[in-house]
């Protein structure tokens, strides 16, 4: 009996401690709360306990949970919703570009471009080692490759490496001095394999004209200066703060094992190919990681199942890091569609070249690779822009589904051109459409650089969001930052209007805003493999949420586009407050 009494006391003390720990930490009342939980999508109030959602409901229900010490916030009718999730963001690349020379898709005449380069050279913004670079170049420049050479291959630039990188991150232009450094000359062009011949532009006399796409760009990017660990950490910090300010509390980094300067489109990863992962690890170890990052490892498109062992060795190096998961693999099925790159794989050849683009995966064996990824319990996320690339990507996933019903959610991203025969395949194959609907605009990219070169059928179904939704596909929101803005509110509004400077891009494919709210919350959480932890304000999930400055369900599309985040909360802690 003497031994039993202390045990009773220990149990009583432990129970009391648990009760103290379980006290309601935070209550938010009098709000318009969108939970993204379809069983209870809109409520008035929210209670948080130990960083997780305790309960949602009416003001009366949640007031009953208030205890001494509970922090109580009156939302005053403001709108609250789950933290937003971006299912395709090269965030640290974006952070690096935030402090670099960047045209942000503006198109200047070449004299103005030259003056801009001088300014950024002199203030150091364009300097990366001894290379001068400007990012965010519109693809409209690439048809002027020869004229770019006339400006930047002579005079003050003749002995200076100059590189202009496209906003799509698939294309670039380099001057002769930089091309020489990369070993690109007329002789190389003569001996390029057939698959690479369209990746380096050439003059009439056979010399390179400076234009580069995908594998051609890899040759030059491999000779670019590499950012050091301190610069990468600063970029990660900048990217994190910027994303939090937009209400983003989670993202998928689809190329986390690739660093600037590595041959992304022909990457042959080793266990030392760790890319951005050390920067994420450093961010987490400092306690600053106020976002969930689902980091994917890029596999070479021609990988064999045995090659996954190498990627697993990378995964094992970054286990157990708070808020960092490594749920799967990213694969490039093709390139980009805009003229003059035209490396996206199409079912019908481009009208000008009579070529179908470049399918990077091997259709005969791709299913084996996807199935091997699936068998390991990893998700696969596939870049597919052209309609043939989309079809072959679905074929690969279909093979995995035939081999087993793992329940793992795979995804295809971009989906710029989708043949109608594919619409109904997404739902039964449990494939999420991760779409950058900020791009669904009638502009020079979707019209001038595409419409003259593809079939009417292909053009009609550009970014076919509504068609996919109508056939049961699940849509998730994505930005591809820094290819374009990571601002989810801009993308949501664009998905609704599809308006651009050249009109409306197929109004039949527009979406309603509730679909977009789910695309950036619950559906996005499924896409990155974290639907049990985040994505809705459901009891037991982490309390990631945002407060915005307007009723996003009621305002018009222009006002939705201009939405401002007032507060961002992560695990029940306020991590961003909009400056007054």
Structural summary, described in words:
The protein has 580 residues and is α/β, with parallel strands linked by helices. Among the domains are: 17-77 and 542-577, Roll (Urease, subunit C, domain 1); 93-221, Roll (Diaminopimelate Epimerase, Chain A, domain 1), CATH 3.10.310; 333-511, Metal-dependent hydrolases (TIM Barrel, Alpha-Beta Barrel), CATH 3.20.20.140. It is built from 20 helices and 26 strands. The strands form five sheets. An eight-stranded parallel β-sheet has the order 8-15-16-17-18-19-20-21. A six-stranded mixed β-sheet has the order 3-2-7-24-25-26, with helices on one face. It has a six-stranded mixed β-sheet with strand order 9-10-11-12-14-13, with helices on both faces. Strand 2 and strand 3 form a beta hairpin. Helix 3 crosses helix 9 and helix 9 packs across helix 10. It starts with a helix and ends with a strand. Residues 1-21 have low confidence and may be disordered.
For the structure shown, list the relevant keywords.
globular, 31% helix, TIM Barrel, Urease, subunit C, domain 1, 580 residues, 20 helices, 6-stranded mixed β-sheet, alpha/beta, 8-stranded parallel β-sheet, Diaminopimelate Epimerase, Chain A, domain 1, 21% strand
Topology at a glance:
Blueprint: H1 4-21, E1 26-29, E2 32-34, E3 42-43, E4 45-49, E5 52-57, H2 59-63, E6 71-74, E7 79-82, E8 84-86, H3 91-98, H4 110-122, E9 127-128, E10 131-137, H5 145-152, E11 162-166, E12 171-174, H6 176-181, H7 186-191, E13 200-202, E14 208-213, H8 215-221, H9 229-245, E15 248-253, H10 277-285, E16 292-298, H11 308-317, E17 324-332, H12 366-375, E18 379-384, H13 387-403, E19 410-414, E20 431-435, H14 444-448, H15 456-460, H16 465-470, E21 474-477, H17 488-497, E22 499-500, E23 503-504, H18 513-519, H19 522-527, E24 545-548, H20 557-561, E25 565-570, E26 573-577
Parallel strand pairs: 1-6, 2-7, 8-15, 10-11, 15-16, 16-17, 17-18, 18-19, 19-20, 20-21
Antiparallel strand pairs: 1-4, 2-3, 4-5, 7-24, 9-10, 11-12, 12-14, 13-14, 22-23, 24-25, 25-26
Helix pairs in contact: 3-9, 9-10, 12-13
């Amino acid at each position: 009996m003497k031994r039993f009494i202390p045990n009773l006391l220990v149990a009583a003390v432990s129970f009391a401690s648990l009760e103290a720990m379980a006290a309601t930490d935070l209550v938010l009342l009098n709000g318009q709360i969108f939970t993204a939980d379809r069983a209870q999508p809109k409520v008035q109030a929210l209670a948080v306990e130990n960083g997780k959602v305790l309960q949602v409901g009416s003001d009366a229900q949640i007031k009953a949970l208030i205890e001494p010490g509970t922090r109580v916030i009156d939302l005053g009718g403001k709108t609250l919703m789950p933290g937003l999730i971006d299912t395709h963001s090269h965030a640290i690349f974006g952070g690096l570009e935030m402090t670099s020379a960047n045209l942000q898709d503006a198109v200047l005449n070449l004299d103005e471009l030259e003056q801009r380069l001088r300014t950024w050279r002199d203030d150091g913004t364009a300097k990366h080692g001894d290379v001068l670079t400007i990012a965010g170049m519109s693809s409209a420049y690439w048809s002027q490759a020869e004229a770019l050479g006339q400006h930047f291959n002579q005079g003050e630039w003749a002995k200076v490496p100059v590189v202009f990188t496209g906003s799509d991150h698939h294309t670039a232009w380099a001057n002769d001095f930089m091309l020489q450094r990369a070993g690109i000359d007329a002789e190389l062009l003569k001996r390029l394999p057939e698959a690479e011949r369209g990746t380096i532009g050439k003059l009439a006399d056979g010399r390179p004209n400076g234009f580069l796409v995908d594998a051609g760009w890899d040759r030059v990017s491999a000779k670019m200066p590499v950012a050091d660990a301190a610069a990468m950490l600063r970029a990660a910090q900048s990217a994190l703060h910027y994303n939090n300010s937009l209400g983003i509390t989670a993202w998928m980094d689809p190329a986390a094992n690739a660093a600037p300067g590595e041959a992304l489109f022909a990457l042959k990863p080793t266990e030392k190919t760790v890319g951005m992962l050390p920067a994420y690890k450093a961010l987490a170890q400092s306690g600053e990681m106020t976002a969930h990052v689902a980091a994917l490892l890029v596999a070479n498109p021609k990988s064999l199942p045995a090659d996954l062992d190498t990627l697993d060795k990378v995964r094992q190096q970054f286990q157990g890091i708070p808020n960092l998961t490594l749920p799967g693999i990213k694969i490039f099925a093709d390139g980009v569609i805009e003229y003059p790159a035209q490396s996206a794989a199409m079912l019908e050849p481009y009208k000008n070249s009579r070529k179908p683009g470049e399918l990077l995966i091997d259709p005969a064996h791709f299913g084996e690779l996807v199935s091997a990824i699936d068998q390991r319990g990893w998700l696969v996320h596939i870049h597919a822009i052209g309609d043939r690339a989309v079809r072959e990507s679905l074929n690969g996933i279909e093979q995995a589904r035939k081999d087993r019903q793992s329940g793992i959610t795979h995804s295809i991203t971009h989906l710029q051109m989708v043949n109608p025969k594919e619409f109904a395949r997404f739902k039964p194959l449990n494939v999420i459409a991760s779409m950058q609907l900020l791009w669904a605009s009638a502009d020079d990219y979707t019209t001038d650089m595409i419409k003259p070169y593809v079939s009417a059928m292909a053009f009609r179904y550009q970014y076919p969001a509504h068609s996919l939704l109508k056939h049961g596909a699940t849509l998730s929101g994505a930005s591809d930052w820094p290819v374009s803005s990571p601002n989810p509110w801009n993308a949501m509004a664009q998905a609704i209007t599809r308006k651009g400077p050249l009109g409306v891009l197929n109004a039949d494919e527009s979406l309603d805003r509730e679909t977009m709210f789910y695309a950036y919350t619950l559906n996005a959480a499924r896409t990155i493999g974290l639907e049990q932890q985040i994505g809705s304000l459901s009891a037991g999930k982490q309390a990631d949420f945002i407060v915005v400055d307007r009723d996003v369900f009621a305002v018009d599309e222009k006002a939705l586009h201009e939405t401002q985040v007032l507060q961002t909360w992560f695990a029940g802690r306020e991590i961003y407050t909009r400056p007054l």
